Every structure is written in structure tokens, then in C-alpha cells.
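sorry for the late reply, my laptop died twice this morning and i had to redo everyting from scratch. anyway the thing you sent over, i finally got around to it. pasting the sequence first so we're on the same page, its 152 residues, then the predicted structure underneath. double check i copied it right bc i was rushing
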Amino acid sequence: MTATDTALTGLAQGWCALSVLHDRIEGHIERALQAGHGLSLREYSLLDVLSRQHDGDGGHLQMKQVADAVVLSQSATTRLVTRLEDRGLLTRYLCPTDRRGIYTDVSEAGLRLVAEARPTNDKALREALDEAAAKPELAPLVRTIESLDSTL
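ok and here's the structure:
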């Protein structure tokens, strides 16, 4: 297979379109969350993941699980958690059964903020997808994303 093969070119174009769609969606949501709630998309994502935790078995996430959930390295997740902790939006604590494990909890202020920001996130996502659907090169990807909504 050479660099000019049709299959390879098609894959590269598909990957480029996916990257463009991701960047557009992320940028649109980021601007909406910053303007409306003073949150970055990463901060919102972290608060959202943590707000869905519950008490009981399997209800708390260790820092590595949080990093995986928000698609960041462990060190970047730790820095993000520290920023949100400094703002009073979450707390960290040691696992009571394994002192090596560190868990996080969203504070009441963090729960309120993520609840206020969720409609902004959802609206911005819908707007970004609608805008992208009008572009012929992105429309198939938007349709795929929308089809996933009903299967998850």
C-alpha cells in the first residue's frame, strides 16, 4: 500500500474530518461553559463524572479511574482536581480500606455548579452538532454520533 492508495487516502480524510468535528464541538462547548459558568470543558467533565458517583460498593472512583473517565493523564488529572479543590468544588480523601487509594467527592457547591452547567453543555453540544451537520464532509459523522445516542 502506498501513500496514494485510495483506501489510505479515504482513511486519512475520514480521520481529518473526525478531528475537525471534535475540535469544533469542543471549542463551542468550551466557550459556552466559560461564558456561562466560568468552567473549562475539562473542569465540567471532571465535575460531571464525579457527580455521578454514589455511596456504596463501586460508587467511588480512584484517581486513575477519574483520569481514564476524563481522558487525561494522571498528573494532568491531579492538577485539575487541585484547581477544583482550591475553588471549593470538590474534596479528596484517602480510601478507608486501602490508604494508597485516593478518592474524590464533589462538594455541594460543585454539585450545584455542574447542575447549572449541564443544560449549557447539552445545548452547546446540540448547537455544534447541528452546525456540523450542515457541512457535507461532517454530516455522516454527526449522523453516526446521533445514532449512538439511542444505543448507549
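The mean pLDDT is 88.
thats about all i looked at so far, will dig more tmrw
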